[in-house]
Amino acid sequence: MTDSQVLIAVPEHPRGEGASAEHLRRLREAIEAHGFEVRWAVDAADAEAVLRTEAGLTAALIAWELPRRQGTGAEPGGASVLRSVGRRFQNLPVFLIMADDGVRDLPLWVSESVVGYVWPLEDTPGFIAGRVTTAARTYREAVLPPFFRALRRFDDAHEYSWHTPAHAGGVALLKSPAGRAFHDYFGERLLRSDLSISVGELGSLFEHTGPIGEAERNAARVFGSDLTYFVLHGDSTCNRVVGHFSVTRDEIALVDRNCHKSVLHGLVVSGARPVYLIPTRNGYGLAGPLPPAELAGDSVAARIAANPLTAQAVSPDAQYAVFTNSTYDGLCYDASAAAHALAPSTPRLHFDEAWFAYARFHPLYAGRYGMSVDEDSFPGPDRPTVFSTQSTHKLLAALSQSAMIHVRPAPRAPVGHDRFNEALMMHGTTSPLYPMIASLDVATAMMDGPQGHWLVDEAVTEAVRFRQEMIRIRRRIEEAGDRPPWFFGVWQPETVTDPGSGERFAFDEAPAELLRTEPSCWHLEPGAAWHGFPGLTAGYCMLDPVKVTLTCPGIDAGGDTADWGIPARVLTAYLATRHIVVEKTDTYTTLVLFSMGITKGKWGTLLDALMDFKSLYDQDAPLDRVLPALVAEHPRRYAGATLRELCQDMHDHLRSARLVDLLDTAFRELPEPVEPPQLCYQRLVRGGTHRVRLLDSPGQVAAAMVTVTPPGIPVLMPGENVGAPDGPLLRYLSALESFDRRFPGFGSETHGVTVDPDTGDYLIECLRPTAHKEAPRAAPPAQRGSTARTPDRT
Questions:
Q1: Any alpha helices (H) in 384-539, and if so which ranges?
Q2: Prior bond to 710 cis, omega within 30?
Q3: How confident is the model at residue 794, as a pLDDT?
Q4: Measured between alpha carbons, how far is 355 from 326 in angstroms, rounded to an integer?
Q5: Mind listing the pLDDT tens digit for each residue in 682-723?
Q6: What is the 3-state secondary structure (H, E, C) of 650-699?
Q7: Rounded Cα gap, residues 216 and 374, in angstroms
Q8: Burial (CB count within 10 angstroms: exposed 0-12, middle 13-18, buried 19+), residue 349
Q9: Which residues lie in Polar residues bias regions (predicted)?
């Protein structure tokens, strides 16, 4: 590490007078002569600022009698700095600088926090520097996780490449002008680390040997699983692997309707027959959790019995269930409660945790993630096997597409490594990008020990600060009386209760420490108006504070609309002109993520942009000033309009079309399933489908999934009947089609829909009516109606 640093925290300044200052100055020079940069601090506040901002520290010398921060009690400053080291770093070598022989007067915990003591005037600066830098080098080597350490050693060997890839460490690129530009842009180190699977000393991604296997086992320890597998094609591939392994052709799978499209792709590959579970929705159009009643055994059994596809299933018992945790909008389950509820219905439970890889590393999320379902939280023979699939790159610090599968097998549905590995190999690559593997290894190391909690806690803290500041700004606007009294809201509880004292606070007046550490502050209390989801029980669902949903005027969580409003699509179009790209936009809400990369400066720019939008709206600014590119692209539609006119026109259209209500109905009243997804795919690739306009689609069977973003959830699955002309699905899609025609530039991103460039009509892929029906497939007599345990797939 070229930026290796040593912290020296002492009361004396290195430019001070006297023997002590001179000795410390020489110590600094000796450490720097060993190739380390020295960061100097003269009090506890300075030292803790270095600890917060410098991740490259490799050692520290801290004076016990360091001046303390004001208001921190009678304890010496060195004590608070030692505690900060313990919260921020794991095994950082710390030497305590002593002024006398008072070691025996130190608290016992100090000896557990330091690796040695230093009396500066009793040893030479060179000797002390040697002790410190030796410890620093040992730490610097140990801090590297297994695969990344091995990759660095291989790179440092500077061996010639006699294997693929053909760029040979970047050498081939230097023979072309375009290649040279690529080489210079990305750098030689990346290209030298792009290696072939033939490099045996780095191990095998599919055999799980060598440093790669060691890295996966280390990840299993850190993430709390029994088995962990690295995947290089994102959580989408993780979902396909787990689905392909867990359920086979004509077996029943229970599927959260609020699922990612990759879950469906897993069903297509496996040939399973899906039975969908329906999540709640609120007035904003946000998808909520699957309510407890939906997971109950009798409810699941009723859905299976009512589904036409299950008549040809090999067994009436589901072999696999998958649901999203946390949801796109940050709703996470009591994992043990969900597992207990679904256990009577299935032996395998899959938590799709694409956006939730950090949950294990902060007590706020205790018991809210898949790998928390273990022998302690769910003892006994009924515990299902649990899979968690995570996009490590989304909210942890891995490269894009880097992901992991975590497995906690149960005797009820064993997971044999060799057989699971077969599914992994079907979907993986034999040409892995080694920097991606290294990024998974490093992302794991970053979360190991106290630093994992520190990193997540920082993100939670910044999210809490932003949330509270949004409310305070709104209150100040209302109290000022010099401008229209409105501002954007934040979807969160209006009040919270301290469970220790019973004291209730307005959200913006609650102690930040309470919001940062107390899970009950974020629970979706049954019947609470702010979230708008029915059918919940106490503690069942929690809002993740780092996923911040901004609400726009015009509608509330109960679905009541106002006479005026600001559709979120207009807001996010403006934010894009300020180089602020949000994660998701719904009709009147927009989602921003407070990842580990968020800073006060970053969210401060968002606050400023929101205030500027309000000012432009209140002034009724010309649209060509607010969204000039939109007006330039669609001058006939928007020339001469103002921002307020556009917002009101769009709000009136959404309200008269009842788009949010139609969305809710379309997701609540599911289309009738007619054919299994795998059969639809077979016909799709063999010409057994055709594209039809919405007007011509009633009664036809969809051949491909239709997913509308927003909200990003499938409204129509392959094999489902489109329904009647006045049915919920076609009314919803027709309303979207009308919206897109009326407001060019603000159209929905709709996967599975082709837009006719001449008419703007929606076209969807349907099975040709002449295609033959699937022949019924009788199940073996011994299995029909069986309630026996699932076959052992090990």
A1: 392-395, 417-427, 434-447, 450-480, 512-517
A2: yes
A3: 35
A4: 7
A5: 999 999 999 999 999 999 999 999 987 766 678 899 999 999
A6: HHHHHHHHCHHHHHHHHHHCCCCECCCHHHHHHHHHCCCEEEEEHHHCCC
A7: 20
A8: buried
A9: 784-794
Cα dihedral across residues 224, 229, 234, 237: positive or negative: negative
pLDDT, mean of residues 262-291? 93
DSSP E strands in 298-417: the ranges are 318-324, 331-333, 348-352, 385-390, 403-408
Helix pair angle (261-270, 234-246), 10° resolution: 40
Question: Which residue do the tokens 């060019």 mark?
Answer: 744
Tokens of 132: 């410190």
φ and ψ at 313, to 5 degrees?
A: -70, 155
Tokens, residue 639: 């020339």
Rounded Cα–Cα distance for residues 5 and 2 (Å): 9
Identify the sign of the CA torsion 46, 51, 56, 57.
positive
Q: What Å distances lie between residue 280 and 529, 534, 657, 732, 773, CA to CA? A: 14, 7, 22, 18, 34
Q: What sign does the dihedral 717-723-727-732 (CA atoms) show?
A: positive
User: What are the tens digits of pLDDT across the range 651-670?
Assistant: 999 999 998 899 889 888 99
Q: What is the DSSP letter of 461?
A: H
Query: From CA 706, how far away is CA 729, in angstroms rounded?
Result: 11
Select from 62, 52, 84, 80 the least CA-distant residue to 6: 62
Verify cis geometry, omega within 30 degrees of 0, for the bond prior to 246: no
